[in-house]
Amino acid sequence: MALLEVRDVSKSFRGLRAVAGVSFGVAEGAIVGLIGPNGAGKTTTFNMVAGVFAPDGGEIGFAGRRIDGLRADQVCGAGIGRTFQIVRPFAGLSVLDNVIVGALERSASVAEARRSATAILEQLGLAAKRDQPASALTLPDRKRLEVARALATRPRLLLLDEVMAGLRPTECDQMIAVFREINRRDGLTILLIEHVMRAVMALAQEIVVLHHGEVIARGAPGAVVRDPAVLECYLGEETEV
Amino acid sequence: MNRRAAVLLGVLAVGLLVLPAVVSSYVLSVATLILFFAYAGQAWNVMMGFAGQLSLGHSLYVGVGAYAAAGIFFHYGIGPWAGIWLAIALCMALGAAIGFLAFRFGISGVYFALLTIAFAEFTRIGFDHIDWLGGPGGLFIKVAQREHLDLLNLRGPPAMFYYLMLALTAGAFALCAWLLRSRAGYYWQAIREDEQAAQALGINTFRWKMLAVVISSAMTAVAGVFFAFYYNNLFPEQIFNISRSIEIILGPVIGGVGTLFGPILGAAVLTILADAITELLAAIGVEIPGVKQVFYGLVLLVVVMFLPHGIWPTIARKLGLAKRD
């Protein structure tokens, strides 16, 4: 059975159907990409998994239990970490303190959280900036901090919402390397929304394509990017991958 | 804390301890008032400075705490050391009620502040109708011999009240310093900075905001008990007045919201300057009603414009003390 199981999930906002009957699964240890044009319902799907709001219909299962309708903090407690598309650092706190807040979720004491946060900052190349206020960071660093904070909660599933957007290709490659490493070493399962196809192709073992709130294709990256329906609605005929 | 900060803190502590021996009774009363506002400001700061929940109705807790302890002392002769627990329990219950209403139903920001004002206001009006506590005519505790020290019933000379307030302020400072470094401190600051992001990191924001309100109201209740036994008279119109709430928050706002020294420094600056102005005007024979309030407004204006983070962060940097404190 898959670690994350999204079954027939729907969500409307004042009559606008953002997500309609979406189903997909994410196997333990896998990296799955969620792609699609703007307004396809990717972030809405994410927010339902993360507990920001409950689906109108359908079920979301995680590690064998229902999580739809749980609050965001309960979803995090269940083992799902997330980043936000528009980064939300705790601007007034230092970089280290930002990550400590996340690490406290699985730490018995602040001292233990500090050790674990320091290790994660090393891993993401932010160790040198640990004492800077988060508000002083550049956008790529803020994205890294967003990831570091989510990782600090020691999730089994990490939800990444466009963490590559705005990064230069080399920065993007560094980020890809980090996720590969965490996935390989810790077996962390990742579900990522991404427009940067370079990242999706490099990371994802499976891709789910959303369009108008519905799944129009899913499968191995190589096959999905040649799918005529996907080419027409999202990638376009000329896209090189 | 670095070496320099420790030395400065030591000098300050010694200075405060010997103060009653070297100054006049007038200066001592001003110092006691400063400590009172420093303590109450510190209590308010737990809610607003740490957890980002703006209360404009902290006079509620001062008033209820004061009336609770004074009431059972007046009627049953139960001393303040017992009364203080009643005061704390009542204020915690009130804080929890306000917090529950607000946080359960998603009331935040300005609307939360309005709710805190509403509670203080209807309590003020309500107390006007409680004859058992004197109603609008006020509740008076018997003023005892000033020389006779009765610590059990908090009857004694001004120096006793000064030392009591000093102990409370030091205790509140230590408590807040500890809280800020604990899990609660991290969670509160995360909630203050971005509640949704905090929740995504597994923080039950409802629970931690409730904790902030309950701690803050309990601390403020103690200030109320002190107030009752120091001034010996309580009037709903005065103690629950919104201007009291504003006076409590001016210290931390001017000193630096969310900092540990801000409330203390702010209270000192405001009280000393306000008193100096009153004295000065009296000396030249001018009497202008409400000059203190106008002065508070001006100081607030200047600080908000030129030192939006308060006086303390600037001074701390100049003195080479902690980076963010």
Summarize the structure.
The complex is a heterodimer of chains A (241) and B (325). By secondary structure, chain A is α/β, with parallel strands linked by helices.
Can you give a write-up of this model?
The complex is a heterodimer of chains A (241) and B (325). With 241 residues, chain A is α/β, with parallel strands linked by helices. Chain A is built from nine helices and ten strands. Chain A has helices at 42-50, 72-78, 95-103, 110-123, 139-152, 169-186, 197-203, 221-224, 228-235; strands spanning 4-13, 16-26, 31-35, 57-62, 65-66, 80-82, 157-161, 189-193, 206-211, 214-219. In chain A, strands 6-7-8-3-9-10 form a six-stranded mixed β-sheet, sandwiched between helices. Chain A has a four-stranded antiparallel β-sheet with strand order 2-1-4-5, with helices on one face. In chain A, helix 3 (95-103) packs parallel to helix 5 (139-152). The longest helix of chain A has 18 residues, at 169-186. In chain A, 46% of the residues are buried. By secondary structure, chain B is mainly alpha-helical. Chain B has a single domain, classed as ABC transporter involved in vitamin B12 uptake, BtuC. Helices cover 74% and strands 1% of the residues of chain B. Chain B contains 14 helices and two strands. Chain B has helices at 3-22, 25-50, 59-76, 80-104, 110-127, 158-181, 183-193, 195-200, 205-231, 236-239, 242-255, 262-283, 291-306, 311-318; strands at residues 139-140, 233-234. A two-stranded antiparallel ribbon of chain B has the order 1-2. In chain B, helix 2 (25-50) runs antiparallel to helix 9 and helix 3 (59-76) crosses helix 9 (205-231). The longest helix of chain B is centred in the C-terminal third of the chain and has 27 residues, at 205-231. Chain B is globular and about 60 Å long. The model of chain B has no long low-confidence stretch (mean pLDDT 92). The chains are: A alpha/beta (241), B mainly alpha (325). Chains A and B meet through helix 2, helix 3 and helix 5 of A and helix 7 and helix 8 of B.
